[in-house]
Design brief:
- This protein is mainly α.
- The chain has two domains: 40 residues; 144 residues, no CATH class.
- The protein is 46% helix and 8% strand.
- The strands form two sheets. A three-stranded antiparallel beta sheet has the order 3-5-4. Strands 1-2 form a two-stranded antiparallel ribbon.
- Helix 4 packs antiparallel against helix 5 and helix 5 crosses helix 6.
- The protein is elongated and about 80 Å long.
């Protein structure tokens, strides 16, 4: 029995050390040396203060800012510790009510906007933390943001276009605009 148990125990300890200690430290070291910003969480720092991450959405509620996708995280919006979708199917009345309420809120914030509301402004993502919106969702909000900031709509539209990113390698994913980056660029615009 000892001849079977000893090699199994040694192998268990060895593999645990390799996969639980050596490998994570090696991967972390390579990531921090090759991709330091991404390994640190893609944090955005202004004046020495961390104000967010380009990877996690934030709860922008001021009508002078662009709004991101709704968050499905429990207790508080965009809670990174509670990532997860709402798991509501398309026929679920709760989902239908939530979407209708979001449409009404968008219409109330910009009553003159009669363009159809882009779906990503009224539905949550799978993680509930999506930092990006579609260019259509950003353009939908441009008139409201421009009006409340007393900026020309064309200037706000250019900002959106400047911050839009296409598909990865022209094939993967969808075109997108990072809401935090767009709002920071918007805040940097000189007031008229």
């Amino acid at each position: 029995m000892n001849t079977i148990l000893r090699p199994a125990l040694v192998l268990f300890v060895l593999l645990s050390a390799i996969t639980g200690i050596v490998y994570p430290f090696a991967v972390t070291g390579v990531a921090q040396s090759v991709f330091p910003a991404q390994a640190a969480g893609s944090l955005v720092v202004r004046d020495g203060v961390t104000i967010g991450s380009t990877l996690i959405g934030q709860n922008f509620t001021d009508p002078k800012h662009f709004w991101g996708r709704p968050s499905a995280t429990a207790l508080m919006p965009y809670n990174g510790g509670a990532s997860g979708g709402a798991n509501q199917g398309p026929l679920n009345p709760a989902l239908m009510d939530a979407v209708q309420g979001r449409i009404e809120a968008l219409r109330a914030a910009d009553p003159g906007n009669t363009v159809p509301v882009p779906v990503d402004l009224v539905t949550t993502s799978a993680s509930g933390l999506d930092p990006d919106i579609s260019p259509a969702a950003a353009h939908y909000q441009a008139a409201r943001v421009a009006r409340l900031r007393n900026l020309p709509v064309e200037q706000v539209e250019r900002l959106i276009d400047d911050h839009a990113k296409g598909r990865l390698f022209g094939l993967l994913g969808e075109a997108r605009v990072n809401v935090l980056a767009l709002n920071l660029a918007l805040d940097a615009q000189p007031s008229p």
